[in-house]
Each structure stands twice: as C-alpha cells, then as structure tokens.
UniProtKB/TrEMBL annotation, chains A, B:
It is an enzyme of class 3 (hydrolase). The gene is rnj. Gene3D superfamilies: 3.10.20.580, Metallo-hydrolase/oxidoreductase, Ribonuclease Z/Hydroxyacylglutathione hydrolase-like. Its EC number is 3.1.-.-. It comes from the Bacteria. Substrate binds at H365, V366, S367, G368, H369. Homodimer, may be a subunit of the RNA degradosome. It holds the Pfam family Lactamase_B_2. This is Ribonuclease J.
Amino acid sequence: MPKKDIALKIIPLGGLAGIGKNMTAFEYGDDMVLVDAGLMFPDEAQPGIDLILPDYTYVLENEDKLRGIIITHGHEDHTGALPYLLADLTRKVPIYSSKLTLGIIQGKFDEHNIKNPKTREVSDGTTITLGAFTITFFSMTHSIPAAFGIFMSTPAGTVMHTGDFKFDQTPIDGRRPNFHAINKFGASGVDLLLSDSTNATRPGFTPSEAAVGRDLRHVIKNAKGRVFVAAFSSHIHRLQQICDASVAVGRKVVVTGRSMLTNTRVARELGYLRIAEDDIIDAYDVDRIPDEKVVVLCTGSQGEPLSALARMATGEHKSLSIHESDTVIISSTPIPGNEKSVQSIINELSKIGCEIYDKSKGTVHVSGHASQEELKLMLAMARPRYFMPVHGEAQHLRAHAELGVQMGVPASHVFVLDNGDSLEMVKHKVRRGRAVESGVVYVDGGTVTEANPVVLRDRQKLGADGVITASVVVSKRGGSVSAVEVLGRGLSSSAEGLLASEGREAVRSQVTKLMAGDGASVDALRRGVRNSLSNLLWNKTHTRPMIIPVVMEV
Amino acid sequence: MPKKDIALKIIPLGGLAGIGKNMTAFEYGDDMVLVDAGLMFPDEAQPGIDLILPDYTYVLENEDKLRGIIITHGHEDHTGALPYLLADLTRKVPIYSSKLTLGIIQGKFDEHNIKNPKTREVSDGTTITLGAFTITFFSMTHSIPAAFGIFMSTPAGTVMHTGDFKFDQTPIDGRRPNFHAINKFGASGVDLLLSDSTNATRPGFTPSEAAVGRDLRHVIKNAKGRVFVAAFSSHIHRLQQICDASVAVGRKVVVTGRSMLTNTRVARELGYLRIAEDDIIDAYDVDRIPDEKVVVLCTGSQGEPLSALARMATGEHKSLSIHESDTVIISSTPIPGNEKSVQSIINELSKIGCEIYDKSKGTVHVSGHASQEELKLMLAMARPRYFMPVHGEAQHLRAHAELGVQMGVPASHVFVLDNGDSLEMVKHKVRRGRAVESGVVYVDGGTVTEANPVVLRDRQKLGADGVITASVVVSKRGGSVSAVEVLGRGLSSSAEGLLASEGREAVRSQVTKLMAGDGASVDALRRGVRNSLSNLLWNKTHTRPMIIPVVMEV
C-alpha cells in the first residue's frame, strides 16, 4: 500500500454520555496521538462505583505507537483518567498542555504517586511534531483558563478539534479565542472538524464571563453580613472576579473546601489567580474580622453533601457557619442529576433565613460552552469538509449535526458516532471506520475493572430489597439437619417479622423433607432453602430480598 | 373553659418536602376535619421503599372526632393515602370532593378492595356543616379539572385554604376560579390563609392552559408521520387539547399506558374529556391507519423507565414503535429528580431521529401552580390577618412568606412551619401550637411501617458495597472448626478475588485462634469472624462490604 493511502483513524474511546468527550485516539500508520484522558462520575445506574474511566485497551494494545498525549484543558472529564493510563503504560509518554493544566494535573500525579511524568508546556501557536502528526495549539476560552483547540495535520488530511469552548470576547485574563488561527486553518483547509456540542440545543450566544462580574460586585457590595460564594474550584476566572469584587469593597477572602484550597493555591502559584497575600485569611482566623469584611469562597455549588457549603449550611463545618444576616451566592447551575441536592441545600439555607442568590436571581453564572450562534461561527470560520459533533449526549450531537448541515456541510459528510464507532480519513476523504472495542471501565474499591452487569444488578437488588442469609448444617452420616440460622438485613419490617417467626422452621422442614428422599445433593438442598424462603416471603409479604443459601455438611 | 376560648388547631401531617401538602387536620373541640390525604414517592434517600404516607397517628388517635375528609383535587399527592387511611379507620367517614376527583379516587378504592366508601359530591358554592365547621367549596383552576379551594368557619375564626391552584382566566372547560367567592370571604374576614407555595419563587403570572393549545395544534398539524404526545394522565385539559387538535386535522387518537387508559376512561365517562368514540382507536388497530392520521397519547413524560414512551423509544412496546418520520411531544417539565430520566429518553429519541418537541422548543407545557403575581392577587383578595404558606419546600415557603409581608400581613402574623409544628387559633388570633407527632411512614413490601433508619442505612450500604456472608460451624465438644463457608454478592472484583483466595482461611484461622483460648463465646467468635474479614478486605482492597457472620455450634 503506497504511503498516501494510509488511513488516519479517529477513534473516540469511553463516552458513557458524550462521544469524543473523555478521550479520542488519532492513529496514522505507526503513530498515535491521544487527545484528553478524562473520567466520568457514576450515578444511580452504577451503584457503589467510585469512578468511570474510558476503556483504553486499544491504546495499551498499540502502546508502541503512542507518541504523545494532548490535554485540551484542566477539567476532570478531560484529565481524570491520566494517572490510571500512565500507570498502565510501560514507558513514559509526553503530555502536552498549558502551564495551568499541567499544574492541576501535577496534583493528581502526586496523589497517585506518579513520579517524573514527561510533561511539556505549550502555549498559543506552539507547533509540535509527533511522528506523522504536526499539531498546532490555539487559545480557546472556557470555564477554566488556558484551554486549547488543536489543529492537526497528517499525510491523510487535517483535523481541527475545538476542545471545550465558548467564544468569550472579553475574557477575564484577556486571552481571547484565537480567531485568527482558526480562520487561517480554515483557509488552509480543514478536512474534519470535531466540535463541542454541550450547548448545541441552546439558541444565541453564551454571555461572556465578564457578565457575571457586575452582579457579583453588586451583591457583595450591598451585603450586610458575611458573603459565601460557592463556585467550581477550577473556574479560576470566576474566583478572580469574586476576589476582585471582595477586595474592591474592603473584604478579606477566606477559602474553604479541599479542592478550592488546592486549586486557588496552584492558580496563585502559577500566576493565574491574582490576589494579595494580605487579602486572604485562614478560616480559623475569620472570627477576628467583622462579618461585613468577609467573603468566603467555598466548594459545594453542586450540592455535594460533604462539601464546605453543605457542612456550613447544616452547622457541621469545623470553623464556619452561616447566619441569618449572611448572604450566599450559588455561582453555578446544577449539572443534570444534581438538581435535588442543590435544592436541598437551598432549603437548609432558607431555614437559616440568609439571603440566597442563585441563577434565578441574577447573572451569577454563565455557561462555559458555546451556544448555537457560536457553534455556527466556528463552522463558518473552520469551513470543514467533514464534521463530527463531539462532547454531548445524543440529543446534543444531533442538534449540532443539524447546525453543521445548516452551515453547508453536506449531510453525508456529517458523522454522529455512537460508542464503538470510529472514522477514518484517506486522501482527505472521511468515512466510517471499523468498530473498536470501546466503552468504559469502573474504578470500584480502588481497582479498575470491567463493567460487570451482574455485580451492579446484585447491588441494585440488595439496595432495594435487602438480603437474607440462610445457613444450614447437615450431618453426612445421620442424614439429618444439625443446625439452621436465618438472618436478614435491610428487610421490610413485615419480612423481618415473618423471618423471625417462621424462617428457620420453613428452612428446616424443607431440608428435612428433601433429605428424606434419595440423599439430595448439596446443590439441591441449596435450591430448596432458597425456594422455601422466597415462596414464604413472596406469599406473605410480597417482598423479594436476595437470598444467600449456605449448606454445610459435617 | 368557656366555649369561645376553645382553640382551632391547624395540624399539618406528613410533609416530607412540603408542609401542609399531603394532609392537614383541623380540630375544634370534639370535631376534626381532614383536608387531603396524599402520598409522596421515594427517592434515593429511601431505597426500596414503595410509597411514603403522612404519619396520621394523630388522626387515628382522635378518630371519634373525625367528621369528614375533604379532597381538594385528584392528584396523588392529595389522594394517594386515602385507601390506607380508610382501611385504618374503624368507621366510615364521609369524603367530600368533586365528581371527577371522586371518580379518580374510586379507582384506588377498587384496587385496594375498599367497599362502599361514603363519598359525597360537592360543587362550586356547596356549603357543608361538619360539627363546629361550616365549610364552603369554591372553584379553583389547576393542572387537573374540578379543583377546589375551601373556606372554613368555626367559632374560633375562619380559615381559607387555596388548595393547589393557578389563576387561569381562560380554562379549557370554562370553569374559572371563583374570584367572586374569594373576594366575598375576604370581605367577610379571613383570619388565616393557607396558600399554595409551589411557584412562589417564580415571578409573573403563570400562563393559561389555553396557551399550550396553539403550539400543540401547530405541531400536530404540520407533522409528517405519527405524533406521540406524552403528558400527565391526570391533566385532562391537556388531553382535551391534544384530542381537539388531533380531531381538527383528521387524526385518530390512540391511548397507551396504564394510567392514561384509566384516566381517559374515567374522564370520558364523567363528561370531563370529550372525544367521539369514532375518533379513538385501539393500539392494536393502529397499523390499519396511515401514519399521518394517528396521534398517540401516552404516559412517560417524566421519563419513567417502564412507561409507554420509554418502551416505545427503546422498541420494547408491545404494539407501537417510533420511527424517524414521527414526531414526539413531551408535554411536561421534569419534576426535580427526574431530569436525567427525561434526558435519557430524549437521547433515545434523538438516536431514532424523530422530531422532538419539549418545553425548550415551544409552549407545549405550562405549570399548574400560581406564580408570584397570582399569589399576591390571592393575598390581596383574601386579605388574611394571618398567613401560613403551604405546599412547598423550605425555599418556596420562605419566598411566599416574603410575598405575604409585601402584601401587608405583619411579619409576626406569618408562620412558616416545619414538620411537627402546628398552629392554633383562639378568638381570631393565631399563634404557634404544641408539637404534634408528625412525619411520615413508609409502604415497604406491601405493609405500612415506621421509617426505620437502620433498614435504610443497611440498604444503602448493601447497594453500594455488597454483602459477605461467613458461616462457621464449630464443634461443641472438640472445640474445633468443622466447616467454613464464605460467600459474597455485589462485591468489587478485587474483593471477590481476595475472598475466593483468602477469605475462608482468614475466618478459619481467626476462629481457631479464638477457640484455643478459654472457650470463646459464640458472640466473640462472631465478632472475630467479622473483624478478620473486614480487616482483610480493607487492607487489601479498600472496600467495606456488609459482613454477616453466622456461627453455629453442633
């Protein structure tokens, strides 16, 4: 096969809800580049699971090809799988990102005891060569500073990957999206565009982060007592605006919550968050300062039950509490699934009687993702021949695909992928590639495991219906039942009562009956134990706990 | 105590999230009246629980006083506890409500096998006397037809209870809120107003249900294939508008989903839903009719996984499926906590590629609860001397309390209650009453039980971490271990592996060691078994499954 016919493969890995969000592999011949290595958080469909990682088996199988890992920005869903991946790789692979992102990642490496990672700082305009790939980074704006899009050139064609972005024309740090670069790449020819679909169903233009400043300043200026602001700890620009507003009115800033302490420290060390040492005070010193001179910057904007805000709202924080005269600003929007937790904190705060500002009361939050007009602008500037919406659930990918068609990409050139799908590009033409082992793996009890539906189903059943353990000792010689013990946990009170009064006897009589026959096997006895209890419980209490029968011969 | 000093007690019962929502007792001397008898649905904080009922112990303890039960409208959170309550009462107590509400309730009675309930139909303006209570019903508008507010007069003073309401000036059935009655009672003197707080944080005026009709008609008229509309089955006016729009463009209506079938049948029988027999077809006959002549009315607007819409979206419905050329209208807004389920159905539909209309794409839903301007209007017309916001979480009660103060009720006359609180009125003056046993009880496996935190905690632990049962047989005489069996369910793979390789031996050696001492008790052996396994698992896998040790002597 002549070299020019080698295909560039574009392989999204992971993506429980959002293709091309957590990790994407780009492979050309003997070279592979990974873009992002993020994780997901479990919900009620994954009981007991700690974290969810992309299944990067494909990367490990092709480890010898891996030339580098590019991290577009510092959010967990783009960085969180890195420590696991690095631990699984047998050699050091260079990691390219901005100073801030690398600073945030370093914290994770320290936690996971990963020594001397091969990190490489890049900035707007940096071009690197990784095997057959020439990659140029360009500045983008997002809800964390120092985010990048990338433009990648290979013998098979070119790809632009936006990373997570919005077009913020007035970013807090003055680092605008590099429209010039995007247009230049667009003019030079973008064969395939991968673009962020998170807000593809939202009309209009996402407001600038600067829009939040006015209301934050207004609320902080007019508050009577202490002001508590809950925000994402990685949203350094938001934190900067809160700090600026506080200092402007002569308030000191107290930082609380583990990730808030870490991220503000890293961001200040690296020069991304600017506030004088004098203007920050320790939570333990806060009582020395009048209430009207204090702003508390805290975690908990998603209602996390163990966060600083939740603990302060319920009086369980070790050094701070919230009073009626105070003001609380919840400077974020609930991520889907967190609505009830956030509501529950707002209820606690309502009982305290403090002032509460959330998104419904003013512009105390704006999204970090591009809305429809920005997405169209991106399509207009990049002018891609082929388009693959990424980073969104099925609804958002489809909405973004429709925008692509509106912007003139032929419908047959728009690819909405599902888990396991891939694309390939040959001579600047893109088509669907072969299926790749994809999906996700779980971090469960400290170890990474394949998703095991039996375990999850068992946990759901245990959690809903409880468990009964029925232990029976039978005598090998006498053919008789020597002992029976039946115990339940998590049962409804009717099942618990029934078990106490009739459980043991039901098991004993069933086993005795079975043994009176032609010497029933242990398996048959076990089935008998399970059936006797499950019939008893279903008939009399209409419950179906999990039953674990144990039959032991002595 | 002279009769005029007898207190009218106002006792909210239940109210997991929404004081005075599910059931409120009004007691004056030897007479008691109950307003509503509803239930709540459990969430992840109540694993395995079927339903949540108000704890109506107080009602049962005072059963001889109970003169009647008033049901304001037919929603589950106001009617669902009735069958349980009636079963617990030793005599028949009359139930007052509208024809529709009684019709809906009758279905529940049939399910629960409750014979000959003493139901009494009332209508706008009906006045009844129940002991010392004179009660007048007045029409209100809500997201179910035939809702009432009530005005209650007692020797201690008067109370107005709005029920759930919005001020719909153009209701689909022409039955407007009875402003005249509200103003008349206001003029005659309302000592205490209890008013619906659900939307107390929402500015403005909730749009009329009629506002939904235009967009529904537009979408149904312009759809190419079948149209599927998911709505609350009790929202008869919504169903009426969907039926009208369908018939107007020559489409037949197919009804699917259990509660949708029941409610449309009841509503048609009672004259609340009007559609000709000819215009309704059975789901099994739908294939005889061209797609563009069909509208499917279905359950599942909240993303319920077993609903008709969910089954049709995933291809699991027995007679209907959704195709790319079809249109789906989700004619509701997710109730907090259901956002992810609804999103998940929208994702399935996006994969099918059909047209999807939800609230973001047009007015296909409006709330059934009054917004701030309506709540102020209610306060302006009722002119209460005292005010108790009801039916809302802490945030909404507080917001409504603030509206009350804005409208001129003195802050000291506004009462925001918590679970267990009560009010009492003596000679037209309202103050806080004594605490009442309140709270909720659970329906768990068919029986009603006290909330048992141990059971719920056990279920949460079982569901998150799994369970290990460790059975040990020891010989009484020999002082030796005769048999050990260790089994796990729902464990992480590392814990499962460890258990298989080392579990049995860890238990055996620990028990042997303990028995080598001065004949350890069964309790001590049990503790030993638990500790040996929990240490082993924690040290090597950092997991903490529930451990059930069983020690049997033979």
